Automatic annotation (TrEMBL):
<dbReference type="Pfam" id="PF00857">
    <property type="entry name" value="Isochorismatase"/>
</dbReference>
<dbReference type="InterPro" id="IPR036380">
    <property type="entry name" value="Isochorismatase-like_sf"/>
</dbReference>
<feature type="domain" description="Isochorismatase-like">
    <location>
        <begin position="5"/>
        <end position="141"/>
    </location>
</feature>
<keyword id="KW-0378">Hydrolase</keyword>
<protein>
    <submittedName>
        <fullName>Cysteine hydrolase family protein</fullName>
        <ecNumber>3.-.-.-</ecNumber>
    </submittedName>
</protein>
<dbReference type="InterPro" id="IPR050272">
    <property type="entry name" value="Isochorismatase-like_hydrls"/>
</dbReference>
<dbReference type="GO" id="GO:0016787">
    <property type="term" value="F:hydrolase activity"/>
</dbReference>
<dbReference type="InterPro" id="IPR000868">
    <property type="entry name" value="Isochorismatase-like_dom"/>
</dbReference>
Amino acid sequence: MPPTAALLVIDMQNTTVAMAHRAAETVAAIAGLSERARAAGVPVVTVRQRDEGMVPGTEGWQVAPELAPREGEPVVDKTTPDSFLGTGLDETLRTLGVTEVIVTGFATEVCVDTTARQALSRGYDLVVVADGHTTSVRTEEDVDLVPADRSIAQANAVYRMIGWPGRRIRVRAAADVDFAAPEGAPGVRPA
């Protein structure tokens, strides 16, 4: 049976977008992907972080306008890097019949990575959108952090190499994600 995909948009809120590396490019990639998903009837699930820096109802907590969920679309609020932990995400995806998640968002090495691995552990196939996730801009004080471009590239490389028994894992550019792909492979154009 072909996978049924859902697009996850993780933590693309005003506060995180303001500190994001290549913010405009990442937002544009996710916005285009979201529109194509909606046009194909693929669910777009928005995940929002809630903490002392992103308080519900504040401007910083709001999802970036270009990525704001449409009326009736699922929205999941979380308080940890794991979009599944203590949330209704798994139930939402299972109710929608989802078997494959297409992961985008902020931050590459924290919430995106944690959610992607948890999706695999919970039985979902995975597509990591190579140009659809980002991390924070690095400053001179961030000497112990890998430069942002390298962090993103490393995550993409890890997901190209990682094996997970019984799961299909792919890394694709946003332009190569095709929600109407033939041959029982929704989510990715043939490579």
